[in-house]
Design goal:
Number of strands: 8
Strand order of the largest sheet: 1-4-3-2-5-6-8-7
Number of domains: 1
CATH topology: Rossmann fold
Helix content: 25-40%
Mean pLDDT: 90
Radius of gyration: 17 Å
Amino acid sequence: MSLSLSRGKQLDVGHHGIAQDDLPPMDQGTLDPRHWFNNTPNPPPTDSPTTPRPIELEIGSGKGTFLVQHAKLYPDVDFLGIEWAKAFWRYAADRARRLEFNNIRMLRCDADMFIRHYVPDNTFQQIHIFFPDPWPKKRHHKRRLIQADFLRQLHRVLVPAEPGREGVARIHIATDHAEYFDWIQEHVAKVTDLFDRQPFVSPKSAGEGEMVGTNFERKYREEGRTFQGMILAKRP
């Protein structure tokens, strides 16, 4: 564990942290991530009754700054964060545990794989993707998360859009990388049958003058970087 994150302290993910190895085999079908919010280390069987609380997803949670700020404002909403970097995942899960946020869970897993093979249709109220890895070298572009096919998968796992229901069935995207933003726009143009593009609106949890309020944004802002974003609203 990096001392720059833990400062030498032992981190405990508790039941706030779930690892990819904890997931059942993919051939067993989908699982409902809402089962992870019952304060037990392992989810009950997928056919168990559950209270349908709203749930939102953040992909690439880093240290969990957005989640802890946002979850505090929305205690009646559950938040699942996905983070592949083990050090950040452990830090974010331990942070949620220490601060007693029972509406936060952190999953260390490949986001594309999890969404494609595990998440049922019509699950998440909103999805947040802030400062994803731009993979700037051309030969690595195929690794970029935001692509048309992946956006179709996100459309599938978002709850249905209904007239009069504001703030649901949306994807929030922000980046500091101009070329990646151009790439995102190109792929968004391929799914206009599924989404309506809207201007980015900062979440209420963002601080004054902040776009999102993540650690990455605060670091990049000090470097003078420019931020761009958009909201993709699922079409009825």
